[in-house]
Amino acid sequence: MSLNLKERYGLLINNEWVPASDGAEFNVYNPANGEQLAICAEATKDDVDKAVDAATEAFQKLGKKVSQVERADYLLKKLLTLSMRTKSIWHKLKPMTMVNQSVKL
């Protein structure tokens, strides 16, 4: 399984990738082999508040222009696109899940 990962990931706030306000980060590891996959920004309460405020403002601007049906259609299309991208990953993980369920501790 091959993933194209960046070395570092920030926080997506107001449609921009930004570091955590206090600069905190954490490492993400592959549980199968312990290999480090990436370094991610660790959000603070202030970061979360900024993200929620930005999302609320964006929704208020766009929500008036887009009907509920159009929003639902858009979200379903995005979900389908995401699921198709990750389909091969899920198929590879399924056998691992089945094995883990059959192991008795």
Protein architecture, described:
With 105 residues, the protein is an alpha+beta fold. Helix content is 51%, strand content 18%. It has two helices and five strands. A three-stranded mixed beta sheet has the order 1-5-4, with no helix packed on it. A hairpin with a 6-residue loop joins strand 4 (25-29) and strand 5 (36-41). The longest helix is centred in the last third of the chain and has 35 residues, at 68-102. The relative contact order is 0.12. The model has no long low-confidence stretch (mean pLDDT 82).
DSSP strand tally:
5
Helix content: 40-55%
Question: Strand content of the residues, in percent?
Answer: 15-25%
Spatial strand order of the main sheet = 1-5-4
Q: What's the mean pLDDT score?
A: 82
| Overall geometric form | flat
Report the end-to-end length measured between terminal Cα atoms: 28 Å
- Secondary-structure element string: EEEEEHH
Judged by helices, strands and strand pairing, the structural class is alpha+beta
Outline the low-pLDDT stretches. Answer: none
Biggest sheet descriptor: 3 strands, mixed
So how many helices?
2
Rg from Cα: 18 Å
Write a concise synopsis of the structure shown.
With 105 residues, this protein is an alpha+beta fold. It is 51% helix and 18% strand.
Kindly list the characteristics that best describe this protein:
flat; 105 residues; three-stranded mixed sheet; two-stranded antiparallel sheet; alpha+beta; 5 strands
